[in-house]
Each structure stands twice: as structure tokens, then as C-alpha cells.
Specification:
The protein is α/β, with parallel strands linked by helices and 255 residues long. 31% of the residues lie in helices and 18% in strands. Strand 8, helix 5 and strand 9 form a beta-alpha-beta unit.
């Protein structure tokens, strides 16, 4: 990586689907054939900082700025996600932060199975991120909306998620890698609660869950607003610092 490689950085994978990639501030421009655009509004909590970097699509460390997933979830218009708000809060305790964006909108959990392109790309990016120094500190995962349409997918969600956690930890050789997943707040009402139950009820060491329920959605009733993404980023940071900060390195629980 012919990058700026921050020293002793704490590295976090950001993965899942569109609400992790970020759609905050994305709107349909009725004056331009209903094309989606990002409004460009970056809240103070999501501003760039010299100690926050991201691994770009070419596996180089670059200064992190919104939209973090612009060159990763490249077929969609990306906006504000939870990553920068998370990083700005964590850096106060962690110092240098490295973000590894991997999320792609509209993806079901079966597309993140070992051997599938999305999974293998995530593992490759994660491995590359630590080559210049630094330590992989956690995986932030927000996904599941695409698994709420059929009973089959919803019923299979827990087993698929457990397998994903096992595979990531094994393939990165990090058996205790902290994982913070988000319990979904949108999707098909038919089976959304089934997926939420799986997420909130998962009892695996060093896996915690934050609940997005109550966060404001955009008019599409699917994606979090910019304000909600800032809130979620802070919830994820609080969960990380509470459960995996220096004082409690091996705790695990559900929030």
C-alpha cells in the first residue's frame, strides 16, 4: 500500500448493506430526471480529521471523508453513514483510526457467504489493511433488510450470521474479533421482527448488538436520515468503548 499509513492505527471494518454504506442526505432530484443525488451536507460529527483514514477501493490509505463508501458501493449514490460519526467519537480514546468500508446496498446475507465475491473482497481488504501496521479492532455490521421478504430467508438468518462470524474470525485468524451488529429498523414488515429477534438474541462471545429501532427514517421508509446516522455512529462507538475498550477487553453482551 503506497499510502499514508497512520502509525498504530486501530482498524474497523464497516460492512453490510445500504444503511452501513450510507444514504443519509441522498434524494431524488425531480429537476434531473428523478436521479438520485447526495445533498453534500456533512454534520460536524462527521467532519474529516487528520487521525481518521479509510482504505479506498485501490487498497490505499487516504484521508477519510463522507461519503465513505463512494468507491465501494459504487453502483449507488452514497451519502452519510455511521462510520465517520463512529470514528470521530472513538478517536478521542483510540487515537489513529482506520476504516475499511465494505458495505454494498441491497445485498442479502447469502451474498456474504464464504466464497462469494462480497465476502472474499471484505476479507481481502481486511487483510490488506493491517499490512502497514495497526490492529484490527472490530467489525461493524448493519444488514438484514434484504432478508425480510420471505420466511425462508428470515428463518435462515441467524444460522447464516453465526456462520459469517465464524468464517470472518477464522479467515482473519482473530478468534475473538469484536463484532457489533445493528438490529434493523426497516425492511418487509412480514418478517422484519424475525430477523430482529435473531440479531438481538445472538449469544456469541464478543458479539454485541445495538438496536436501530426508534431512529428516524427517510421518506422511503427504508434508509436512515443523516441525523439518524450520526446517532447510530455514536451508539456503535459507545458499544465499542463500553464492551471492548481497554478496561473490558473480553466482555460480551447485548445492548
Amino acid at each position: 500500500m503506497d499510502s499514508l499509513t497512520p502509525d498504530a492505527k486501530q482498524i474497523f471494518i464497516l460492512s453490510g448493506q445500504s444503511n452501513m454504506a450510507g444514504r443519509g442526505g441522498v434524494f431524488r432530484d425531480h429537476h434531473h430526471h428523478n436521479r438520485q443525488q447526495w445533498d453534500g451536507v456533512v454534520p460536524s460529527e462527521c467532519q474529516p480529521h487528520p487521525s481518521i483514514h479509510r482504505l479506498d477501493a485501490h487498497l490505499r490509505w487516504v484521508p477519510a471523508r463522507e461519503p465513505l463508501h463512494a468507491d465501494i458501493d459504487a453502483k449507488k449514490v452514497c451519502g452519510v453513514g455511521p462510520g465517520m460519526a463512529f470514528a470521530n467519537k472513538v478517536r478521542e480514546c483510540a487515537g489513529e483510526v482506520g476504516l475499511v468500508p465494505c458495505a454494498v446496498g441491497g445485498t442479502a446475507i447469502k451474498e456474504w457467504a464464504r466464497g462469494e465475491h462480497l465476502y472474499e473482497s471484505m476479507v481481502k481488504r481486511a487483510r490488506e489493511s493491517v499490512k502497514g501496521g495497526g490492529e484490527m479492532k472490530g467489525l461493524l455490521w448493519y444488514q438484514g433488510e434484504s432478508d425480510t421478504s420471505t420466511q425462508h430467508d428470515a428463518d435462515a438468518y441467524e444460522g447464516n450470521m453465526v456462520k459469517l462470524i465464524e468464517n470472518v474470525r477464522q479467515d482473519l485468524d482473530l478468534p475473538w474479533l469484536p463484532i457489533i451488529q445493528v438490529a434493523i429498523v426497516s425492511g418487509d414488515n412480514k418478517y422484519m421482527e424475525k430477523v430482529r429477534e435473531a440479531q438481538l438474541g445472538m449469544e456469541i462471545p464478543n458479539v454485541v448488538c445495538v438496536d436501530a429501532k426508534g431512529l428516524e427514517l427517510k421518506d422511503d421508509h427504508l434508509h436512515l436520515t443523516t441525523k439518524s446516522q450520526v446517532q447510530l455512529g455514536h451508539m456503535l462507538a459507545d458499544a465499542y468503548l463500553q464492551h471492548f475498550g481497554p478496561s473490558e477487553p473480553n466482555s460480551h453482551a447485548s445492548l
